[in-house]
Amino acid sequence: MAPDSELVQKLLKVYRQQTGQDAKPKCIGGGTYAKMIPNTLAFGPIFPGDEVREHKPDEFMEISRLVENCKIIAAAMYELAK
Fold first, then answer.
1. What is the end-to-end Cα distance of the chain in Å, rounded?
2. CA nearest 71: which of 6, 20, 24, 5?
3. Which residue has the higher pLDDT, 76 or 34?
4. Among 38, 35, 28, 43, which Cα is nearest to 80's?
5. What percent of the chain has a predicted confidence (pLDDT) above 90?
6. How confident is the model at residue 44 (pLDDT cuts 50, 70, 90)?
7. CA distances (Å), 21 to each of 36, 43, 57, in order?
8. N or C: at which end does the chain have fewer Cβ atoms within 10 angstroms?
9. Distance separating alpha carbons of residues 2 and 25, to the nearest angstrom
10. Contact assessment for residue 25 and residue 3, using Cβ atoms and an 8 Å cutoff
11. pTM assigned to the model
12. SS (H, E, C) the chain
């Protein structure tokens, strides 16, 4: 999806507001549900500097990061619904 698309810009706006970080959109390898559903993209949950643990035997997330992700996702849902 184009970085300047309305969806990407709304999600970046929410992320920046919630974290105070001037994030840039990233494209990662691998397959996600977003490839199967038109006009969708994967959003979250790894933060810059955090250890990448997904798809490892002991995959986990700290509770503080889980709460932070919940707040970001809730704000994104609100932004996209208005």
1. 21
2. 20
3. 76
4. 43
5. 45
6. confident
7. 30, 15, 30
8. C
9. 10
10. yes
11. 0.82
12. CCCCCHHHHHHHHHHHHHHCCCCCCCCCCCCCHHHCCCCCCCCCCCCCCCCCCCCCCCCCCCHHHHHHHHHHHHHHHHHHHC
Task: Decide if 45 contacts 65 (C-beta within 8 A).
Answer: yes
**What is residue 77's predicted lDDT score, i.e. its pLDDT?**
96
- Residue 1: predicted pLDDT: 81
Amino acid at 27: C
Tokens of 38: 């038109």
- Express each pLDDT in 6-34 by its tens digit: 999 999 999 999 999 988 887 776 666 66
